[in-house]
Structure prediction request, 307 residues.
Amino acid sequence: MKAPRVTLDQWRTLQAVVDHGGFAQAAQALHRSQSSVSYTVGRMQEQLGVPLLRIDGRKAVLTEAGAVLLRRSRQLVKQASQLEDLALQMEQGWEAEVRLVVDAAYPNARLVRALTAFMPQSRGCRVRLREEVLSGVEEVLQAGIADLAISSFTIPGYLGTEMSAVEFVAVAHPEHALHQMNRVLTFQDLESQLQVVIRDSGRQQPRDVGWLGAEHRWTVGSLGTAASFVGSGLGFAWLPRHMIERELREGLLKPLPLEQGGNRHPVFHLYASKEKPLGPATQILVELLRNFDTASLDAPFAAPPQA
Prediction:
């Protein structure tokens, strides 16, 4: 890659000349001599090969090319300043990135709200969000690949902060054979039917959470796929209510009238990595995740302004 011929200091000098209305005013603002400012801008024009300013009376005025280049340079100088600020923040312990792994059953709307509120406070800290299913969250946290984890499992050796429960509902298509029985259902009724289960993304000790042990089982890779299958009349499944609210409301899915176990309420927990202490950005994100976990998803929400 060819090295740039013009430095950031030269672009800053040109901006000062334009913003302050002349070489003398720019020199005063930059605490430099007028001859130094004039030389810097003249040298820029030689290096770029295009005139940037023309003298109109006693005032320096941008040429057409100068106006285009100056506009682009403002973003360049701003980004360079933000980069220096980020380096200073990192020196003071501010993280460049927070890695968050979440069970796919956790409500997305709560994550969106927390991350939206985090953005103007992030100071350039990136968030790397990863979705896993069941024990996959635990494996990622224990492998040191995540700083924070949200899981419905108790993770051995970690002290988690209790968050809200997520309701899972046993559902099937309204025309499914189970609904045609027109009575309260038992687990024995379910064992003769096709059950759609979600594949555990963990590899070390994958778990068949919710599977009844029936031979008729289809395993899919995501909750969205399971909802699509069941909504098409293929089997039954326990699905998070927040993901299928529309289908339930429109009658595309119908809760199974089970005598017991038709609704499950696993409680989720927020865990932090033991590999390193929480930095300031991670602590802010933890607080936001906890706050928006308990907030009503029906309540009005306005995104905060960009920093």
Observations:
- The domain at 97-165+267-294 is CATH 3.40.190.10 (D-Maltodextrin-Binding Protein; domain 2).
- The two ends are 32 Å apart (CA to CA).
- The chain has three domains: 8-91, 97-165+267-294, 168-264.
